[in-house]
C-alpha cells in the first residue's frame, strides 16, 4: 500500500474508508465459510447479550427488525445458535404465541463473540478525545451513506 504524501487529508481519509470497506467485505466472505457464526448471528448475539445486561428481553421479530432481515432467516439462525448452546427460549407470559430469546451462558463475553469489535475498542481508547469525536462523526456520516444505498 503506497500513500502519496502530496494528497490532501480528505482524499487520504476517503481512501482509508474504501480500504476498510473492502476489508469488511473480505471478512464477511471469510466468515460465511471459514470462521464460525455469520455476521448476522454475531450481531444477534450481541443484541441478545446487551438486552440481557439491561434486564430486558428480545423476541425473534425484534432481532429480525434490528438486523434488517426476514423473520424466516432469523428463525434458522436462532436454531443454529440454540443447537450450539448459545441461546435458549422462554415463553412470553403476555403473548403465548411469542417467545423471548435468552442467552444460555450469561458469562459469555460479548467481545469473545466478535473479537474484531474488541480490538477496535482497544484502538479507540488510544485516540485523543478531540480526534475521537471527529472520527466518530465522520464514520457516522459514512455509515449513513452506506445505509442509504439501495434502500
Automatic annotation (TrEMBL):
InterPro entries: HTH_MarR-typ, WH-like_DNA-bd_sf, WH_DNA-bd_sf. Signal peptide: none annotated. Residues 31-131 form the HTH marR-type domain. It holds the Pfam family MarR_2. GO terms for molecular function: DNA-binding transcription factor activity. This is Transcriptional regulator. It comes from Microbacterium testaceum (strain StLB037).
Amino acid at each position: 500500500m503506497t500513500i502519496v504524501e502530496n494528497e490532501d487529508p480528505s482524499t487520504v481519509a476517503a481512501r482509508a474508508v474504501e480500504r476498510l470497506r473492502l476489508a469488511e467485505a473480505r471478512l464477511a466472505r471469510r466468515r460465511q465459510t471459514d470462521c464460525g457464526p455469520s455476521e448476522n448471528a454475531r450481531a444477534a448475539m450481541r443484541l441478545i447479550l446487551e438486552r440481557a445486561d439491561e434486564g430486558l428481553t428480545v423476541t425473534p421479530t425484534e432481532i429480525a427488525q434490528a438486523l434488517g432481515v426476514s423473520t424466516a432467516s432469523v428463525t434458522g439462525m436462532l436454531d443454529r445458535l440454540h443447537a450450539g448452546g448459545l441461546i435458549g427460549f422462554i415463553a412470553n407470559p403476555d403473548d403465548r404465541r411469542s417467545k423471548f430469546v435468552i442467552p444460555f451462558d450469561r458469562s459469555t463475553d460479548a467481545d469473545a463473540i466478535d473479537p474484531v469489535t474488541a480490538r477496535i475498542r482497544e484502538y479507540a481508547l488510544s485516540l485523543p478525545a478531540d480526534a475521537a469525536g471527529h472520527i466518530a462523526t465522520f464514520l457516522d456520516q459514512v455509515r449513513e451513506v452506506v445505509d442509504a444505498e439501495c434502500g
